[in-house]
Amino acid sequence: MDILTIFSYILPFTEPVIIIALVLIILLIGPVFFERIRIPGIVGLLLSGALIGPHGFNLVPADLEFSLLGTIGLLYLMFLAGLEIDLIDFIENKSKSIFIGLASFAVPFVAGYVVCSTLLGLSAHASWLIGAMLSSHTLISYPLLGRLGVVNKPIVTIIVGATIIADVLALISMQLITNFATNGFEPENLMLIAFHFLLFFFVVLMVIPRLSRIFLSRYEGDLGVQYIFVLVVLFISAMFAHILHIEPIIGAFFSGLVLNRQIMNTSPLYKRIEFIGNNLFIPFFLISIGMLADFKVYLSHPGEIGIAIILIVTAVFSKYFSAIISKWALGISFHETNLVFGLSVSRAASAIAIILIGFNLGVLNETILNATVVLILTSCIISSYVTQYSGKKILLKGNESIVKSSSIKQKFLVPVANPANMENLLEFAMLIKDNNDSIPVYPLTVFTRHEQVRDKITENKAEIEKVIQKLHTDVNYETLSRIDNNITDGIVRAADEVVATAIIMGWNNRNISFHILFGNVLDNLLEKTRRMLLVLKTPTSFREVKRISLFCPENAQFENGFSLWIEILTNLAERLQLKIKINCESELTYDAIKSYVKKGNSSKYFVIHSGEFEKLTDEAVKHTAAELLIFIHSRRKAISHSRAFEHFMNNSINVYRKNNVIIIYPEQ
């Protein structure tokens, strides 16, 4: 008995432990090996699936258990796409998403229908289903963009929105032709589909956000419970969509969308969601797609290769042509056009679902089914190469256009004395810190009495560590303690030692006027240091903020720290996924801010107004902690200092006592 005969008795493996071990070895070695020979890791996983699947070496059966993991991976992929999408970009560019989505649906649909009905001689029902299959796409290569760090680029957000539009239209087309093939055309079916979508959107967009906000705040800090809750939201949304005869991937995407603002991309929960998905569930899905490929059928039936080639050519060129149409209409760049093509050319679950429905109805035969599987594998390989190439080009181009005020990294010193606002101060430092640097935030405690200071230092350090743990952040904090003659000198010396670019400090919430409360420390700091000072009044966490209004005096653009405070506020807006409404009294200041944020690719986070402050405040600002007021003040004798603005600021703080307030003194 030879070795092949022996293996034929034991293959495929049925022991779950062996199957899981084999797949995990592939996940560990496969991407690294394929990337060494210049093949994208995603392609490596697809090819690995083809090799170990029932049509390859038959190591792993395509049974219910493995397809279950693949389904989880697909839903997780769409959930991540919704969670990572930049909502501000999505809202601003919704018209572009709609256009690209319509083009990505219509061109392949028409091309598929014409080719199948003429060249392949298929029936109208079969041609319609294949057209719907070709018009769909799955974001197979989306994880590549996450590794490149370009998922927040506007074009990626536009494509993600377009994907949902194209897939919804493809699935509606499938639903219509299925109903027509079984029951004939009935107007009631259209009404039922519309009702299902309306009910779905009401529950997912109105009910789930409220429940999730309550739950995540109730179990804040318990990452295990929070993560399980996120999974429950994901699969409940997908299940609800399925019950309403809507494709579950639509439910998964919108579950990510509704959690988008509640799970910040700097939070440990977000990073764990991303880590588990990209390293476990999504790779299982890619392997399961590869396992569908059956190349042996073309050895026994060579004539069927022609049908597969026709479908592949139609699928690829129709998606590329739709990307070209988008380029002509929207004026996107060459590499952005390629990215539109790269992300939209891949087909997966939606495509196979549409074809399987047609196969089960007897509208499509096994030849079309096999050709579709080969099309899926081929399109995914093309997608991986094109997405990786164009993503790198867009990243390089973006890095060239980023405007920075200096090469000095931002360092934040946070003097903490009041336990009531300590957490909010450290949270604010976390929100405005650049994601891409490992420089710590420096919480500082200053002691002016030397007696028993060692015990006090230990107590304060323990208290600060407790607050940092409560924040559940991966940002590095380095606690500092200083003994000095007075608070001001201790802060200034610590800022000099760590070369801080900004000092973040707070006031308590007692009804004491600004100058009486801060008189000595703040005034002395303004005299003794030229560094940026950020003074915070924070009755609530910044996660409760829903609107941001910023007030800027005349000549603010001439201060040395002008660019630095814009960069800091850009980071804040990006983390909170909110726009900052900037109110300028001066047209010159208005133009300077507008020009700077445009050059820095951050204009999407700002809405700029000009006019009188009192009028804008009375009309726009509400008496609530959900509204954050930011004032760009200045030191006396500075070029932008204005007594009128100072009077306006003090009056606003007195009037809007419930609001979160930040006062920024730019670097001199």
Structural Rg:
29 Å
Quaternary structure annotation: single chain
**Percentage of residues assigned to helices:** 55-70%
Task: Please give the alpha-carbon distance between the first and last residues.
Answer: 86 Å
Structural class: alpha/beta
What's the domain count?
3
Instruction: Name the CATH class of the largest domain.
Output: Mainly Alpha
Mean pLDDT across residues: 81
The major pleated sheet works out as: 10 strands, mixed
Give the count of helical stretches.
Answer: 26
- Which architecture of the largest domain does the CATH hierarchy give at level 2? Up-down Bundle
Report strand order across the widest sheet: 3-2-1-4-5-10-9-6-7-8
Backbone shape: elongated
Task: Find the CATH topology of the largest domain.
Answer: Na+/H+ antiporter like fold
Number of strand segments = 10
User: In terms of per-residue confidence, which ranges show pLDDT below 50 for 5 or more consecutive residues?
Assistant: 400-406, 508-518
- Sheet-strand content, in percent, reads 5-15%
